[in-house]
Write a structure and sequence with these properties.
eight-stranded mixed beta sheet, globular, alpha/beta, 31% helix
Length: 566
């Protein structure tokens, strides 16, 4: 590509453009298994799978899925936390040319129904407790005909395989459940063992064919899918590898604690590890600080992709100063700006370097990062990575460029940019203009080519890296019989991103309390979407055309909190 200001700030050895290996993600797995068969691939509780063993499980899973009708173009939902079955099913589905639909395990039945039917999923891989609690009753409304149902204990070694069920049953709600003997349902590991001697199909994989439907929010709060091709994903992991100096095969240990249904963890943790034959340390619950610290110490983690709130929670864990975290070398921080004091304390505790970056579902996701060895601007997302072009454009007229130092909308172009939104040509046309992706984020570029995100074009709320759209929350609020009007905003939390707050007007004569309303929402929304605070008002501020003014609510809220601090 043509010279850009940021190229001068690249680390030595990082070129402006790359010669990409024409490999799919399953090709990377096969290569790692061939060259490093005994290297650790998956570390989960007391399980260790080598790359040769992981490839064997993937091939068995591919055979099992193929027997259920999986073939190129079939869409498969993966509805699991960070467990071995998630990694196995992901690579198995892609090796068959299927299109993967990554699904948040916290989704309510309403959200599952929308996503799976919108994608046209006919196969799904889920957990036993999720099937029992959320999926089974939903089956008549779904196009999914076959389920592979996984369970936490099935990949554990003795004695945890024997002891874990007792612990999992005591959780609230239980994290284990019986798998019903009914049509269309098979146990995950049993299905793989039944095909242990089968050779899986090896269809030709067109690198420009869809690989992942990565769901994100829409302008109206309706979830839509960014179509990411095999090439998008392959290119992005190669861009990341070169940017971070090229992982030495079978030497890095990557902490995979961010949820794998999220594009950040999918590429920057799982796919990054596989292409470099690195070990993946799977942790299902990133909120369990004790488990994270134990995993880092036990497995000598070297690479830690995370979000600011995660680093902050570890910083404040009692006794962290006594933990041995010196193995961590590099942390990639994304999803929100990281507070300087959070960054400095975590680096001081570990000796690692936190590199801030930027990406989105529509870009596979990585587009920007600070240099690993060169100048790092704290609070800035850094430089566009190899073969990635970026510019700041006028919010109202994207054809007009904004000069360095002034804010506007961030526009991107590169081989990692999505093909478009699944079955939404109108939405695609709004954001893809003449080869450029309009991100909806407001940014500033320095004269040297560093970028800083300064705001959001829309009202999206960032809760621990998850996107929450106020319109979706308001739509559910309006479904309550006692609610007349509602407006939802995001309220900043230092070092924690934002939390959701809703303002509600009751219908005349109705009584409604906060906890009852939050309980109602909890049955219809994923937990991170449920407002942390609800404030009842007599009326909502409106414009002359009766449009609710969220801006005024946000300004009032910030002013009130500033006054309270004073």
């Amino acid at each position: 590509m043509e010279p850009r200001p940021w190229h001068a700030h690249y680390d030595p050895g990082v070129p402006p453009g790359l010669e990409y290996r024409q490999l799919s993600l399953p090709d990377f797995l096969r290569r790692s298994a061939q060259h490093n068969p005994s290297a650790s691939a998956l570390l989960f509780a007391n399980l260790r799978l080598s790359y040769a063993e992981l490839l064997r499980e993937v091939e068995c899973c591919a055979s099992a899925l193929a027997a259920l009708g999986a073939e190129p173009g079939v869409r498969i939902a993966l509805h699991l936390p960070n467990v071995p079955q998630m990694v196995i099913a992901y690579y198995a589905a892609l090796s068959l040319g299927c299109e993967v639909v990554l699904t948040n395990p916290l989704y309510t039945p309403r959200e599952l129904e929308h996503q799976w039917n919108d994608a046209g999923c006919t196969l799904a891989v889920t957990m036993d407790f999720l099937y029992a609690q959320r999926v089974r009753a939903l089956r008549p409304k779904l196009a999914v005909k076959h389920f592979l149902v996984a369970s936490f204990p099935e990949y554990l070694r003795w004695p945890l395989s024997l002891l874990a069920p007792f612990t999992l049953r005591r959780k609230d709600p239980p994290a284990i459940a019986p798998v019903p003997d009914e049509p269309g349902v098979q146990r995950f590991r049993a299905a793989l063992r039944a095909h242990a001697r089968s050779a899986p199909p090896r269809p030709f994989i067109d690198l420009d064919a869809p690989a992942v439907l990565q769901y994100t929010g829409g302008t109206t709060g309706v979830s839509k899918a960014a179509v990411l091709s095999h090439r998008n994903l392959s290119v992005n992991v190669q861009q990341m590898d070169v940017w971070f100096g090229g992982a030495r095969p079978a030497s890095e240990v990557v902490l995979v604690c961010l949820p794998l249904f999220h594009v950040f963890a999918m590429t920057c943790a799982m796919n990054f590890a596989v292409q470099g034959a690195s070990a993946m340390v799977l942790v299902p619950d990133p909120r369990d600080a004790r488990a994270l610290l134990k995993a880092i110490e036990r497995h000598r983690v070297t690479v830690f992709p995370g979000v600011p709130s995660l680093y902050n929670s570890l910083n404040n864990w009692p006794g962290i100063e006594k933990c041995d975290l010196g193995s961590v070398k590099v942390c990639l921080s994304g999803s929100a700006p990281i507070a300087p004091d959070v960054l400095e304390r975590f680096e001081r505790l570990t000796g690692a370097k936190i590199v801030e970056g930027y990406g989105m579902s529509e870009t596979s996701p990585l587009t920007h990062a600070n240099p690993l060895y060169g100048e790092r601007k704290i609070g800035w997302v850094g430089l566009p990575v190899c073969d990635t072009d970026a510019r700041i454009v006028d919010v109202e007229d994207p054809a007009r460029l904004i000069p360095a130092g002034e804010s506007g909308e961030l526009a991107l172009r590169g081989p990692q940019v999505m093909q478009g939104y699944w079955n939404r040509p109108d939405e695609t046309a709004l954001v893809l203009r003449d080869g450029w992706l309009l991100t909806g984020d407001l940014a500033v570029m320095s004269p040297g080519g560093y970028f800083q995100i300064v705001g959001r074009k829309k009202d999206m709320i960032n809760v621990g890296g998850f996107k929450v759209f106020p319109d979706e929350v308001d739509a559910v609020l309006h479904g309550h019989p006692a609610v007349l009007e509602a407006a939802t905003i995001g309220v900043p939390r230092p070092a924690h991103g934002e939390f959701v707050k809703s303002f509600v007007v009751r219908k005349p004569g109705q009584t409604l309390e906060t906890e009852a309303l939050r309980a109602y929402l909890g049955e219809r929304l994923a937990p991170y979407k449920v407002p942390r605070e609800v404030e009842f008002l007599a009326e909502l501020p409106k414009s002359t055309v009766l449009k609710i003014l969220r801006r005024e609510l946000r300004e009032r809220e910030l002013g009130k909190r500033a006054a309270d601090r004073d």
